[in-house]
Design brief:
By secondary structure, this protein is an alpha/beta fold. It is 43% helix and 13% strand. A hairpin with a 6-residue loop joins strand 1 (54-55) and strand 2 (62-63).
């Protein structure tokens, strides 16, 4: 139906998360309308990112340098580690400008259905970091999905013997949310995570 280079471009775009056949087709036609210089810049940016970005050997965040910029910052609290599943979760927490401790990126969540156990994640490295005696608190900032709950329970059990305090971020109603539209799980979490006023 399409000339081979166009069909290959559409096929490659479909490998991206959230991109179906129609969106891949739209993106391909959009890219072909743009000047060739823009296509080269996009291709170059993808190649450079793929070749230059790796993971930090300390926190396992994505970085072009090792250790990463966050691990090199001397004004961070070494005694607190915030555990996240993916680098994008770390970015979300950093955007708040509220957290000043260290991070640990697991690289995913425990998911037996997908064949992902603790061994495939950076759990061993986290346990080693926490066991050095310098850490007073580990904050588990993991989504409340089935896989997230499994990962949280696994890490909480493993860390409780090593760290004085293992906490998790609060879940519940968003600011501006209405009680009548909240699901039962969200309301239950909001009640569990209540604080004194």
């Amino acid at each position: 139906m399409y000339t081979r280079p166009l069909a290959r471009l559409i096929e490659q775009l479909q490998t991206l998360p959230g991109i179906g056949p129609k969106t891949a087709q739209r993106l391909a036609f959009h890219l072909l309308k743009r000047p060739k210089s823009e296509a080269r810049q996009l291709a170059q940016a993808i190649l450079e990112a793929s070749e230059q970005i790796g993971t930090c050997s300390t926190c396992f965040n994505l970085s072009a340098e090792d250790p990463c910029e966050l691990c090199r910052q001397s004004n961070r609290q070494d005694e607190v580690i915030c555990v996240v599943a993916e680098p994008r979760d770390l970015v979300a927490i950093e955007r708040t400008r509220e957290y000043r401790g260290r991070y640990h990126v697991l690289g995913g969540l425990i998911s037996p259905m997908e064949g992902i156990g603790p061994e495939q994640l950076k759990t061993k490295e986290l346990i080693t970091r926490a066991g050095r005696g310098e850490v007073n608190e580990v904050i588990l900032a993991i989504n409340p999905s089935v896989e997230g709950e499994t990962t949280t329970l696994y890490l909480a059990r493993a860390l409780k013997l090593l760290v004085p305090k293992v906490t998790r971020i609060a879940f519940g109603l968003p600011v501006g949310g209405d009680l009548e539209y909240a699901d039962e799980m969200t309301l239950a979490r909001a009640i569990e995570g209540r604080r004194e006023v």
